[in-house]
Amino acid sequence: MAKLTFVGGIHPYDGKELSKDKPIMEVLPKGDMVYPVSQHIGAPAKPIVKKGDRVLVGQKIAESTAFVSAPIHCSVSGTVKAIEPRRVVTGEMVNSIVVENDELYEDVGFYPEVPLEKLTKAEIVDIIKEAGIVGMGGAGFPTHVKLSPKEPEKIDYVIANCAECEPYLTSDYRRLIEEPEKLIGGLKLILKLFDRAVGILAVEDNKPDCIRILKALTQNEKRIVVKALKTKYPQGAERQIVYATTGRKINSSMLPADVGCIVNNVDTMVAVYRAVAEGVPSMERIVTVTGDCIRRPRNYRVRTGTSYRQLVEEAGGFMKEPEKIICGGPMMGYSMFDLDAVVTKTSTALLAFSQDEVSMLKPGPCINCGRCVEVCPGRVVPSRLADAAERFDEAFFLKYDGMECCECGCCSFICPAKRPLTQEIKSMRKILLAKKKK
Amino acid sequence: MSDKLKVSSNPHVRSRATVNGIMAAVIIALLPATGFGIYHFGPKALQLILISIVTTVGTELLYGLISKKQTVDDLSAVVTGLLLALNLPVSVPWWMPVIGGVFGILVVKLLFGGLGQNIMNPALAARCFLLISFPAQMTDFHYDAVSGATPLAALKAGESVNVMDMVIGRTAGTIGETSLIAIVIGACILILLGVIDLRIPGSYILTLLLFVGVFGGHGFDPAYLVAQLAGGGLMLGAFFMATDYVTRPITVGGQYLFGIFLGLMTGIFRIFGPGAEGVSYAIILGNLLVPLIEKITWPTAFGRGGKRHAK
Question: Mutate which of A7, A67, A320, A358 to disrupt the B interface (most B C-beta within 10 Å)?
Answer without folding.
Answer: A358
